[in-house]
Amino acid sequence: MQNIDLLIIGAGPIGLACGIKAESAGLTYLIVDKGTLVNSIYHYPYGMTFFSTSDKLEIGGVPFISHNPKPTRMEALEYYRRVTSSHQLKTSLYNAVKKVEKNDAGFKVNTEKFDLQAENIIVATGFYDLPHNLGIAGEDLPKVSHYYKEAHPYFDMKLAIVGAANSAVDAALECYRKRAKEVTMIIREEEIRKTVKYWVKPDIENRIKEGSIKAYFESEISSIRGNEIDIETPEGKVTIENDFVLAMTGYEPNYEFLSDMGVKKNQESPYAPIYDPKSMETNVEGIYLAGVICGGMETNKWFIENSRVHADMIIDDIKNKKMAFK
């Protein structure tokens, strides 16, 4: 069984940054992921443009050159492949972690492909894998999706979009312009979110104002059927014809996975996992958190650009512990 200093769970940008820092510190490490490299970015909409500029997404001292200041999904995938290759990072992809057991030497880890012993663990799994469910009748129908890839499947279709954040707004505008028959937004709030990208917000507001995109504010979808949906509005229940539903309701960390390892949640801070902000170590000695997973339900708190420092903080703490032990 392989013995390493550090297991990094999650091959996203922050997991890769942790691997680069571990390599430079002389630690033995492995980055594992249940999906492909930067799996969350891979599952973003095909035409997505980042909010951040390319320099804010750089890791490992490798320049990120994009055609425009704000890079696209395709450019990001190419960049992180190049970073991984240039640093010759040790990865094991499509290899989910099944079980983690603490022992005297650290942690025994069972993955789909092999077992290993790790002295320390970094969890950098993000939050994109588990969508918030609506919890309503019909949510499990094939016409319902929590992920948006592209507009083409909705051509000449009556589409309902649940949500008012960037993902919902981007989907609504693109599907409207790619000629969905009808685009209807169902929004809990009384307006489009203030956090929507500043160059997009006027566009969606104007499309709603002119009636090109229908919006029900302060409303919730209450039931989904094969060819229609029910919407609870301030004026009462409305039933409209419908072919597809995009439930862009946000995502959350895999709390069950963290709990199984003994990591506790802070009940007072939107269920964010407990960790030391100076070292990023959790209540379980030897288990660290990095990246957006640290924010719990506040999924807009941490981004690539402001959590790249987690790699330095964690590896420095591990190095200091090793030196103290010697």
Task: Describe the model.
The protein has 326 residues and is α/β, with parallel strands linked by helices. The protein has two domains: 2-130 and 251-325, FAD/NAD(P)-binding domain; 133-247, 3-Layer(bba) Sandwich (FAD/NAD(P)-binding domain). Helix content is 24%, strand content 25%. It contains eight helices and 19 strands. The chain has helices at 13-24, 39-42, 73-86, 166-177, 201-210, 255-260, 304-307, 309-325, and strands at 2-9, 29-32, 91-92, 97-103, 106-111, 115-123, 130-131, 144-145, 158-162, 182-186, 214-216, 220-224, 228-233, 236-241, 244-247, 251-252, 265-266, 272-273, 287-289. Strands 1, 2, 3, 4, 5, 6 and 19 form a seven-stranded mixed β-sheet that branches. Helix 1 (13-24) runs parallel beside helix 8.
